[in-house]
Amino acid sequence: MDDMRRAEPGQGIGTFSWKHLAAVLGPGIVAMLADTDAGSLITASQSGAQWGYRLLWLQVVLVPVLFMTQELTVRLGAVTGKSHGTLIRDTYGRFWAYVAVLTLVVACVGALLTEMGGLAGIGAMLNIPPWITMAIVVVALTLMAVTGSFKSVERIALGAGAFEVVFVAVAIWAHPKAGDVARQIVSIPVTDGKYMFLVSANIGAVIMPWMVFFQQSSVVEKGMKTTDIKTERVDTAIGAVVTQGVMAAVVVACAAALQGSGKAGHLDTVQQISDALTPVLGEAFGRIVFGVGFAGAAIVAAIVVTLTAARELGELLGFGHTLDKPMGEAPWFYVIYAAVLVAGAAFIVAGVDIVSLAVGVQVLNALLLPIVLGFLYLLARRLPEPFRITGAYHAVVAVVLAVTVALGLYSGIAGLWS
Questions:
Q1: SS3 letters for 245-314?
Q2: pTM across the whole model
Q3: What pLDDT is recorded for position 132?
Q4: Percent helix, strand and coil across the chain, each to the nearest 5
Q5: pLDDT exceeds 50 at position 9
Q6: What angle do CA 81, 82, 86 make, to 5 degrees?
Q7: CA 212-61-58 angle, 5° bins
Q8: DSSP string, 331-373
Q9: What does the alpha-carbon distance between residue 104 and residue 97 come to, in Å, rounded to a whole number?
Q10: What are the pLDDT digits (tens) for 274-286?
Q11: Torsion over CA of 188, 236, 245 and 151, rounded to 10 degrees?
Q12: Eight-state DSSP code of residue 53
């Protein structure tokens, strides 16, 4: 247990102030905005299109689950000063570190493909060929990493992700009927395999492996100490509410738009999702709003998943792994970062069913939860006092994480089996 201690004896979690929040703001909200990525928005769109408001309850239930999960990464990063992969290696050995990071890489590759695909879909709406869109994305994100520090990249991610809130306005303008919402939100067809498949996808769209790794690494890279924990919890809580508010808004918007027109069913392309939502705001304005919000979600997530994969692989393999190191000091970090982007772009240019891929990736995330949440819980239980989860809160966290894992596995397997 002592090998996890960086905090000095007697240090606490600090006190909250708005001034302090302004200083530490970033890791929680960036992680959460990235959580509402292109794949998540596609999953939410499919949920509303196929099942109306019947999956809206899940978006609300997942708010505390998301907060509890990511709050543990804040404790681990601030107390130990180590990234998630390094902490697993130092605590359980290199084999388990490779298992955890392999899980991360699989999730990151899947997520990056959905972000790239989403951006290609937005480009297609503007009659831009996929290869041109992908070339612009790869060059822009590579230049951002090579020329910027962690702080500047964090600000870019925050700015891009902020555009996601437009979906809340879309949901309001869609004028959902209160009676339909109240009736459908309590109608849960748990015996329907297709419904359970989307339950699993929604869980995987919210609790993602790379979010755990990213936020813990960001807390470390930002130099946060244990006295920052209480304030960073607020950052994380705000992010959890915002990201699930966006997810719920997309479910509501698609449900209201499609059910009101009697066109409920599958949305098979980004163009079809746009076509479903744009009539709510008017054709021209609606396409601009959708494009800005969707692109913002995809860009912030592409930044996060690519950085996370490069950072964790770099740290595990023993070479430079932060944005604050110039290319000459951390060449392999930037090589891996660019290579991941190029590989993702090439796959999208080759042609892929983006909607099916996005939903499938979220289900994969849900099936990986035993590894991700298992290590997170075990590490949090090894923290020194007073940072270890104990007492009633420990019991709540243990039950919530266990139920989340069980529901994700059951619904994913039931959906695949059907």
A1: HHHHHHHHHHHHHHHHCCCCCCCCCHHHHHHHHHHHHCHHHHHHHHHHHHHHHHHHHHHHHHHHHHHHHH
A2: 0.82
A3: 93
A4: 80, 0, 20
A5: no
A6: 165
A7: 100
A8: HHHHHHHHHHHHHHHHHHHT---HHHHHHHHHHHHHHTHHHHH
A9: 10
A10: 777 776 666 777 7
A11: -140
A12: T
Residues 90-112 as b or e (16 or more Cβ within 10 Å = b): ebbeeeebeebbebbbbbbbbbb
Structure token pair of residue 62: 């997942």
Residues 80/256, Cβ–Cβ less than 8 Å: no
Q: What distance separates the 2 farthest-apart alpha carbons in the chain?
A: 63
How far CA 41 is from CA of 64, 264, 281, in Å, comes to: 20, 17, 18
**pLDDT digits over 13-30, tens only?**
666 666 666 666 656 677
Contacts of 57 (CB under 8 A, 6+ apart): 185, 186, 188
Lowest mean pLDDT among 242-256, 302-316, 321-335, 386-400: 321-335
> CA–CA distance from 57 to each of 27, 51, 118 (Å)?
27, 12, 26
Joined together, the tokens standing for residue 29 give: 């909200």
Which pLDDT band holds residue 10 (cuts at 50, 70, 90)?
very low
Please give the torsion angle defined by the CA atoms of residues 45, 49, 53 and 57, in that order, rounded to the nearest 10 degrees.
-40
C-beta of residue 372 within 8 angstroms of C-beta of residue 209: yes
- Please report which residue ranges of 174-228 form alpha helices under DSSP H: 178-185, 193-206, 209-221
Q: Which amino acid is at 225?
A: K
What residues have CB less than 8 Å from 97, skipping those under 6 apart?
A: 85, 86, 88, 89, 316
Q: Is 309 within 8 Å of 315 (Cβ atoms)?
A: no
Start-end of H helices in 81-93: 84-92
Res 378 pLDDT > 90? yes
Q: What is the tens place of the pLDDT at every residue in 124-178?
A: 888 889 899 999 988 888 887 777 655 665 566 666 666 677 778 778 887 888 8
pLDDT of 8 higher than 70: no
Q: How far apart are the first and last CA of the chain?
A: 45
Is there a contact between 282 and 77 (Cβ–Cβ < 8 Å)? no
8, with CB counted inside 10 A (0-12, 13-18, 19+), is exposed
Position 321 scores a pLDDT of 55
* Nearest-10 crossing angle of helices 283-317, 331-349: 140
